[in-house]
Amino acid sequence: MRIDITPLRTSRDFRLLFFSGMITYLGSMITYVALPFQVAELTGSFVAVGLIGLAELVPLVVFGLYGGALADSIDRRTMVIVTEVASGLLVIVLLVNSLLPAPQLWVLYVVAMLLAGVDGLQRPSLDAMIPRVVERDQLAAAAALTSIRWTVGSIVGPAIGGILISAYGTAAAYGVDALTFALSILLLVRLRPIKVAGGGERPSLRHVAEGIRYALSRKDLLGTYAIDMIAMVFAFPYALFPFLADDLGAPWALGLLYSAGAIGSLVVTLTSGWTSSVHRHGRAIVVSAALWGVGIALVGVTTSLPLVLVFLAVAGGADMASGIFRGVMWNQTIPDEVRGRMAGIELLSYSIGPLLGQVRSSTAAQLTSLRMSFISGGVLCVVGVGIAAFSLPSLWNYDDRLSEHARRERDARPSDDA
To answer: Taking the complete model, does pTM exceed 0.70, yes or no?
Structure first.
């Protein structure tokens, strides 16, 4: 139950990354609530809200892959600072637009696209920095701390966003997010340079293609991506939360709807000691993803706000469990020399799904009903996960005690087991 805070005590750069990330993610989650709320307010359309995800898809794919190549090529500190500044400037554009007498809808879509592109460039470098600033025997503790940081931000950020929007409007939400970027940058500039060992290879299409070929050669790894993609595409209805809050007669609870899943995630994270005794990670991923779908489907069958929050928390806990086991598989089996590029592919696997999920859920709500969108998405998730598990036996049968890839990495880096 106790959280190991050793990396925070022993690594100055990890402390800077930790608190910078906590601050900026808190602000980003405020905008995560404000942006779809403003689109819904301007259009009243399910589809218009869902199109935010579609707008973010292409830049995320392109820049996520290129960002992974850059993470294996240049000073990651510089990369993170430049992209953090760019994100802050884009949020200021949202702030200015929201203050206009007639805010422009197209600005929201354009900025959403640009923010997705910048995130795709930044995230692989952030992920690849952790092993460089933390001792090998502290990587597990660092991963747990990072998970808690995101989870707490996902709980507190939407709640603050809902309050700010309800009391002062979307401009206040964007303004607070811009301030968090300024504070984050002040911390990031204090980082030491983190250059790629050996100078890195110049980023190129060939460099990117090498990472993709490695991913395609690993069927068990592809299975983790496929399961996550299926779960998110079919059962990620977060774009519908503004409408769900109204349907429940509780518009004031919008922030709670966004936070409920994160609360479930936090509970699982704080009680995750049992995960170290699990060796069949593929089966754990499959079961957890199916439970996510069940939780989302149950949201659609009740009109009780407390029960909705409970089911969302259950879904969030299952999603966190799936994420923990995916992370264990990736970190146990991926060689260091392709870590940055694989981080870029990982970014796509856990980002594209939710974006497409917003489009699917909003389109289903438009064609059927709000409730049916939740129910159908959850059911399709369970069925799709089952089909994927049957079709990918290498994932279902994965056991870290038997995997040749895990054994090779253990032999190459025996100190990781300390």
So the answer is: yes
